[in-house]
Amino acid sequence: MSLIERYLAYAVEFERAFRSDDWTTVAPFFTEDAVYDVPLEPPFGGRFEGRAAILAYFKDILDRVDRRFETRKGAILEGPREEGGSVWIRGRVVYGAAGVPDALVELEEVADFEGDRIRRLVDHYDYATKLRMAAYLADYGERLGIDLRA
User: Fold this and answer.
1) What domains are there in the chain, each with its CATH number?
2) H or E element at residue 122
3) Backbone φ, ψ for residue 64 (5° rounding)
4) What is the distance between the alpha carbons of residues 80 and 63, in angstroms, rounded to a whole number?
5) For residues 52-67, b (16+ Cβ closer than 10 Å) or e, as one string?
6) Which of 1, 7, 96, 124 qualifies as a cystine partner to 71, CB 3.0-4.6 A?
7) Is the backbone of residue 79 left (phi > 0), alpha (psi -120 to 50) or beta?
């Protein structure tokens, strides 16, 4: 299995876990000492060290934000492509809920692999996206029940 195939298998399992809330099925895609860097201010981002911390972050952020919306639709905009021992992808997620405009988040993600497991995952948001996300949360976060405190 290529790294791209492995990454896509992880992405599919991530979506299954989002629906089931069973993150144990995502665990085998990460090394025990994996690191996930999310360049957003807490409570929405940070550096998460270790597989258990990453899985706990997934559950927390999805409960805190994603599950506050009625719909969540992801799309690949570019990639994935393999670069050495890494997979790069650019994507978009559109969130929808009654009474608020859709929220749009675009990001690039790089997954560095050790064998067939992710040892480092890094998200990249451009400045405009960060501003748009902050403005959206300031305008609609309370209405959606999104807690902006760390």
Assistant:
1) 3-144 (3.10.450.50)
2) strand 117-124
3) -70, -35
4) 27
5) eebbebbeebbeebee
6) 96
7) left
Model-wide pTM > 0.85: yes
Cα torsion 41, 62, 93, 106 to 10°: value is 20
Q: How far apart (Å, rounded) are the C-alpha atoms in residues 37 and 117?
A: 16
Task: Give the position of tokens 């988040």.
Answer: 105
pLDDT in tens, 28-75: 999 999 999 999 988 789 999 999 999 999 999 999 999 999 999 999
Give the closest residue to 119 by CA, choosing from 108, 127, 129, 111: 111
Tokens of 128: 């405009």
